[in-house]
Amino acid sequence: MSNIRTTQRVPRACLTCATKRIKCNKKIPCDQCIKRKIDHLCGREKVVVKGELRNESWECRMEELETENSELKNEIMALKSELSRLEGGKEKYTKTTFDSFFTAVHYALRGFASVEERDLKMTAEKASLLRSTLTRSNSEFLVKHNFDMLFCLHMAVYPEHFLVEHEDFWNSGTAGQVMGIFEGLSRQQYRWLALWYAMLSSALFFSNETVIQVMESSSDELFLLAQATLAASLECLMKTEFMTYPDITTVQIFCVLSSCLNGFGGFHLSNCLLEVAIYVAKALNLNRLDNVKNLRLFELELGKRMWWSLTVIDWLEDFNRTPLIRRGSFSTGIPRNYTESELLSGNPNANESKLFLPVTFQLQMIQIATIKRMLYFDDNIDTVNVTQEKLLVAHAELIELRRFALLMLDDTKQKRGVSASLAFQEFLLQLRFSHELLEVNRMAANFLSVEEWESTHRLVCLESAQAMINLTCDDRNKPYRKFWFVADHCMSSCIYLLVDILFVSPRTDPDVRLDTVQRCVPILEKIQNIQTAGNGGLQLMKRLLDLVIKQTSNYSWNDTGMSALLDKLNSAPTMHGGFSHLFDSSPAKDLDLDSNWTDFWDWITKHPSDSFHMGTNHLSPSG
């Protein structure tokens, strides 16, 4: 120990390269030593840092094994992807009427079959609103609100660095000159403004009582300001010529806006921007970060977070779109669970935190997305290779992952207390786990008889659906309902319970399923006042609820406001087949037509649940 040097930093270059003062790729063995055929001698200098002996031989061996493990994982993912493609032609995934009903409702629920999207264009009125409302104090408050609540969702903008840039922006005196201005600025100015407006827009969209008080505005006024800042962000983004000049800011902007774009009714816009962001990310090698040399720890980890933010969105958003990122097509590893101090320390050997951090939320979503993408991804466009065995594995892995996440959350709450951000993360995770468990166990009906499915999977479906509705209806979660998939998952749960009454187990009195759905309707109506894209889905859900309650076909579309909706549905562009091609053996095939709701109910009453086979597209012979 007496001959070992004491220093402040752990050397990353090997001892040979450091002695010769030549460039080292900081891996063991390094490129230079391999080139000189002395790789067996390659190693780092042992030093003492903060009283600890570092760069021991076992550390180098551990790093070597981690690299090898990462490479093998990527190779396995690529091989599984190829195997899945080859097997796809042998085993067809046959959709049931049960599946098709969900698909039909999803078209309206997501707004795909609706032209009713928010006006996202920049106007003179919106520019004037920006100049008259955005003060330095308001801007600083909203940026900090974004980091406090939404950092876990985008992980793309580092708080400490952006706050310094924000301070410089206002200190320079240029804020008043460029705010609401969309001509004559430099490309770099447009980039920063687009990111700033995006930060403000998502913060305003998720405004709570504190934001309302500080901004001294009503929730409606803040929503208009959120729309204006979103329009400003998109306008500035276009001015950056992002396809001609790829820049990391483009990826950051999408990651930040991804939390609110769908809420504004921009599902189509969100899908288009996701494709652009992935294209730019690949151009910047974010998909191959593990192969990029000489990256600082901070740069590496932030790049990983951005790439995986895009991957999670791409792999979890499976409805009406094919994934853009193929399994095994990238080498960027998952982020480390580092605290901010560890991230800035520059020490790649720092221990990962055991606390539930914002990046921990992202890591959980990465695991959920990976399980879904590998085992049961179903985009409703292409035939997918889903098997009963894969669904069983997915169920087990989701259960274990949820158990681990909840233990980690409980431990963090005991040590640090419950912050609004942590409560938000727990709410979204619980909702997502329940949604995926419902999907997995619902899909299992395609491979089992009615009796087998009801005895092994139906209870999980019911519990998952009721759990999502209970989470959404809990007043403690009111501030979090604006996140786009909350209404989506809640409506899916309601529809599942209603379809369960129609197709599986007839209504009882009292019926917990029916009571749960009825309790949720007013909550969903309030959410849809903000998120208009799902209004069609809500109206269809309410009509289905009417069928269950009244069991009559003598009911007018005008009673639920469906006439106006149908005009929009009939004039909307066909999206991958539209409603009329989604069913093959029931009158439910045209649920966008008034008369077919009568036929649909007649069909249900003629074929009660005991003769309806959940696992096929046909009625059982006894029907």
Strand order of the largest sheet: 1-2-3
The Rg value, from CA coordinates, equals 27 Å
User: SSE order, as H and E?
Assistant: EHHEEHHHHHHHHHHHHHHHHHHHHHHH
E-strand count: 3
Summarize model confidence as the mean pLDDT. 79
Major beta sheet summary: 3 strands, mixed
Description:
The protein is mainly alpha-helical and 623 residues long. Among the domains are: 1-54, CD2-Gal4 (Irregular), CATH 4.10.240; 96-117 and 386-617. Helix content is 60%, strand content 1%. It has 25 helices and 3 strands. The protein has helices at residues 15-20, 31-35, 57-88, 97-109, 124-133, 136-154, 159-171, 175-178, 187-205, 209-215, 219-239, 248-257, 267-283, 297-316, 340-345, 358-375, 388-416, 420-443, 450-456, 458-473, 484-503, 512-528, 535-550, 562-571, 594-606; strands spanning 5-7, 47-49, 52-54. A 3-stranded mixed sheet has the order 1-2-3, with no helix packed on it. A hairpin with a 2-residue loop joins strand 2 (47-49) and strand 3 (52-54). The radius of gyration is 27 Å and the shape is globular. The chain starts with a strand and ends in a 17-residue tail after the last helix.
